C-alpha cells in the first residue's frame, strides 16, 4: 500500500513540475488593442487599430416612389413612357483623416448603388428598370488643396427640398485650393473638368483645350453663410475655326431663423451665365434640378444648347435663374420646406428661347433619429417665347414619397 501511495505522489509531483516548466516556456500573449474613439473631428470617428488615422463610415438607404402628370414634350409633343416610377438607393462613404505637421490629410470616398424603374425618375429608364452603381466622390485634401472627384467650387446648395430646378449640383473632377482667412471667411479657386458642363443641344463641341476656371468667396458664421462664385468655360466648336469663353456669376445666402424654431433657415441664390447652362442646373445630364424625367420632358433636357452657330460665329446662350426657399420645423419630429425658382433662357434661335418657373413643397416626419419619411409635390411650367410655335405652355406635376434611413 505504501508502495502504491509513493508511486501516485511521485507521478503527481513529476506532472506538476513538467506542467510548470511548459507554462513558463509559453510566450506571453500581446495585449488586445481595442478600437478607440477619435473625437478630434466630431462624432462617429474612430482610430484604425495600429495607426494614427481616424475613420468615419456612414451612408443611407433610400426608397422613393414618384408619380407625375406631364402635358407634352415641348419639342416633340410626346408623353413619357411611364407616369410613375420607383427608386431604391444605397449610398455609403469612408472619411479618413490623419494629423500631420502640415495639418490634416483627408481622404474621402463615396459610392452608391441604385435601381430605377419607370419614366418619372429618368426619361431614358425603361419600364422594367435599370441599375446604376457609381463612385460619385473620391478626393484628397491636404494643406488647403483639394484634388479628385467632388462638388464643384461654384455650387452653393443648402437647399431644403428633394427637387431643385435651376440649381447647379455637380460632382466632377477638379484640382483646387482654399485659403482660410479665419473668422469663417475663405477664398477658393479651382480648375475643373469642363466636359462635365457641356450642353450640346445638337451643336458639336471640339476637344477640351482648357479646363473650366472656377472660384468663390465664402463667409460662414453663426448667423448663416454666403457665397459669391464665378466661372470661365471654353467653347470650341467643330463647325467653325473659332473659340469663345463662356462665363457667369452667382451669389447665394443662407440665413438661420432660430427665432422661429431651432433648425429653421431661409436660402436664396441668383445666377447669370453665358455659354454654359449647366451652371444654373440646365442642359447637361446629372444636374439635380432635372433628376425628374417629367421635368426633363417639358423643359427639353439636353435640347437647350450652350451656343449656336450663326453666320460662322459662335453665339452664346444667355440665361439667369433665381431661387428662394425656407425650411421650418413645426416640432422636433416634423418639418416642411417651400421653394420657388425662376429661369430665363435666351438662345440665338427663336424656337429654343423659354422661361420656366417651379414651386416645390414637402412635409417630412422623423419618428426616430436619422429616419425620414416624407412627401413632396413639385410643379414646373415652361413658356416658349416663339410666337410661331404651338407648344408654348407646358407644365408638369411631380409627386414623391421618400423613406430614408441614415447610419
TrEMBL record:
<comment type="function">
    <text>Forms passive diffusion pores that allow small molecular weight hydrophilic materials across the outer membrane.</text>
</comment>
<dbReference type="GO" id="GO:0006811">
    <property type="term" value="P:monoatomic ion transport"/>
</dbReference>
<dbReference type="Pfam" id="PF02530">
    <property type="entry name" value="Porin_2"/>
</dbReference>
<keyword id="KW-0406">Ion transport</keyword>
<keyword id="KW-1134">Transmembrane beta strand</keyword>
<dbReference type="GO" id="GO:0015288">
    <property type="term" value="F:porin activity"/>
</dbReference>
<dbReference type="GO" id="GO:0009279">
    <property type="term" value="C:cell outer membrane"/>
</dbReference>
<keyword id="KW-0472">Membrane</keyword>
<keyword id="KW-0998">Cell outer membrane</keyword>
<comment type="similarity">
    <text>Belongs to the alphaproteobacteria porin family.</text>
</comment>
<keyword id="KW-0732">Signal</keyword>
<dbReference type="InterPro" id="IPR003684">
    <property type="entry name" value="Porin_alphabac"/>
</dbReference>
<protein>
    <recommendedName>
        <fullName>Porin</fullName>
    </recommendedName>
</protein>
<keyword id="KW-0812">Transmembrane</keyword>
<dbReference type="GO" id="GO:0046930">
    <property type="term" value="C:pore complex"/>
</dbReference>
<keyword id="KW-0813">Transport</keyword>
<keyword id="KW-0626">Porin</keyword>
<feature type="signal peptide">
    <location>
        <begin position="1"/>
        <end position="23"/>
    </location>
</feature>
